[in-house]
Structure formats: C-alpha cells, structure tokens
Specification:
This protein has 341 residues and is an alpha/beta fold. It contains 12 helices and 12 strands.
C-alpha cells in the first residue's frame, strides 16, 4: 500500500507528526511546525478538520462537561474544540506550503462537510480519529473517496473495529490501516498493550500501526519491533507556547530523537536472511575447522591428539571430525596444516 509516494512495504515506517491544536491559534506557528516536521524527518504532517459546531453542541449541561480524568476536565466540549480547531481558511495555505517544501500532508475529517472540503486539496489519506470510529456513516463516506483509511481503535470494541473494516471493504476500499491507540492524554505505559499491534493485522487482515499518547520514545520503539507500519505522535514546535495538547506532545528535539530511534530500530530488525553475505564470509575466519595439531606420518591413525577443531575456519568443516578419527593417513601432515582428505 502507498500513502502518497510512500510505499509501506518498501520504505519503512510511515511517521506522522500530528499538528492537532499545537498551532495554538497562530497560522505562522502552524507553518513553522510543518517546516520543523520536514527538517526532523517526519513523513507527513496531519491536521484535524472540524469546528466546534461540527463536533458537538454549544451546551453547558452536565453531559457536555468533560469529566473523565483528562487534562481538560471541567471544561465544556464546545469550549475546548473552539479553542483547539484549525481554521478551515488556513487549510489551503498549509497544504500548499507542505507540498512546496516536500512533506506529505493530510487530515482527520470529523464530519461529511470536512470530507468534502478536504477533497479540494487531494489529500494522500484520511485518518479516522479514535472517538469517531463509532460514526459508521462518516467512515462509509470517507472510505468512498478511495483514499487510504487510517483508523485509530482507541475506544472501540472488537465488533466496532470489525464493522469499521467491513464498511471500508463494502465500498470497495481495501487500503486500511488500523492503529493501536490508548485514548488517554497522556496514556500510561501499562495501558498501552502494544501486543495488539500484530494482533490487529492478523485478526482483521490489514496493516497495523500505533497512535501514541504516552510520554517519551519507548512506546514507538517497541511498536517498531512489533511490526507497526505507521506511527503517529503529537508534535509541537515548542512546549512553551502551551495549548490544549502541549502536555503530551513532543517538541522538535524530542520528536527528532524519536524518529532517529525508530529508524535505528528498523535497521536493527533488518530482514530474515540466511544467505552468506560478504561480511559473514570474512568473519568465518574466526570459526572452527579441522587442523593438524601434531605431525602425522603416512600410515598413522587420525586421533583426537593429532586432528583438532580449532580456529581459524579455513580447514575442513568440524562436522567431519567423527568420520575422520580412526582412519589411516595416506600422506604426511605437518603441524598447523589445514586438514583435508
């Protein structure tokens, strides 16, 4: 599967820098964050496309007050989303700038009007946020645009995940990526359950990845070892600017170090390869092989005293030692000779 020009099978892990609310109301900060994401090696910058009115109702009734152990407890949903949203009039310039400097860009739509709006910019993919996985009509409409679908599974039951995958396939969209996600901000390490990353791929027959809300780089590194093909993390230019997501976002230095750690982990994992590389051939100098450890005259027996398995590895393979012992020498051998029949 490809996201834009990035091939998930050949090009490694696709790393998403999530802008979210980290522009803190400043268009210039948003542009500077996109530039920083490009500089540190992120593959894409991701926006969120909504307004407070497309997400919730402007109500201060109890149901609309946040109170589930988040950073935003006590605020109304409408108040939070009005502060955090990315103005729609910014999108054209943000998309154009990202493409101008050579970094991919796409967004999470939160309703059908956002999908229609984003279609104007030909995004490389769509991301369905954790809390929208239960909005089946949004998933259906978004998937019908036939772009790769990246879906966070943070709050979903296994049946809801299956439903989301089935909906994409029903409209003919097979480019599905499920992200393991813990919808807590920040998320505790003990709640990450990263073992689900390979299980998501196996259970649903899709590509799997990781949307990370933990602090630090440990979780993305572990996700890499477990086969994640996509890693998403909130990115902020500088935590001092504050904002709704600042506390669980990585700044430029931290995000750069995370990317480097993920890329190093990819190198360490490598591939399954039993072939005899040039380096292996060179290193076999230090392997064992059969050498003459005591002068042997023609007609004498080969014994454990005059034939030994030692370093280096230029002689006969040690697997033949048991076949050699007890046989009679047909020529003279000198100490230190490679043993060859």
């Amino acid at each position: 599967m490809k996201i834009g020009n990035f091939d998930l099978e050949k090009d490694g892990i696709y790393i998403i820098a999530e802008l979210s609310a980290n522009h803190n109301g400043s268009m210039q900060t948003a542009l500077d964050t996109i530039k920083a994401a490009k500089e540190i090696g992120a593959n894409t910058i991701k926006l969120q496309t909504y307004t407070a009115d497309t997400l919730t109702l402007d109500s201060d009734k109890e149901d609309f007050i946040i109170k589930c152990g988040t950073l935003w407890d006590g605020r109304t949903m409408y108040e939070l989303y009005k502060e955090a949203y990315t103005p729609w009039e910014w999108h054209k310039e943000l998309f154009e700038y990202a493409r101008e400097i050579g970094i991919d860009i796409f967004s999470s739509p939160f309703d059908k009007t956002a999908v229609d709006f984003l279609e104007e910019f030909n995004p490389s993919a769509y991301k369905i946020a954790s809390f929208e996985i239960t909005d089946y009509e949004l998933i259906r409409y978004t998937a019908s645009k036939m772009r790769p679908m990246i879906i966070s599974t943070g709050i979903a039951t296994i049946d809801e995940i299956q439903d989301a995958v089935d909906i994409c396939r029903e409209v003919g969209n097979e480019d599905i990526i499920l992200l393991k996600c813990t919808s807590a901000y920040p998320a505790k390490l003990e709640d990450a359950n990263l073992s689900m990353i390979p299980n998501l791929a196996q259970t649903f027959g899709v590509i799997s990845g990781f949307s990370d809300h933990t602090l630090g780089s440990t979780a993305p590194i572990v996700a890499t070892t477990l086969g994640a093909k996509v890693i998403e993390k909130h990115f902020i230019l500088d935590k001092s600017i504050g904002g709704a997501d600042a506390d669980f976002s990585m700044d430029k230095k931290e995000f750069k170090e995370m990317i480097e750690a993920v890329r190093d982990t990819e190198k360490l994992l490598g591939k399954i390869d039993y072939s005899m590389t040039e380096q292996k051939k060179k290193s076999r100098q230090f392997s064992r092989s059969l050498y003459v450890s005591k002068d042997i005259k023609k007609g004498e027996f080969f014994t454990e005293e005059n034939i030994r398995s030692v370093r280096p590895g230029y002689g006969m393979h040690p697997r033949y030692l048991k076949d050699v012992l007890g046989k009679i020498a047909k020529k003279n051998y000198g100490f230190g000779d490679r043993f060859e029949k």
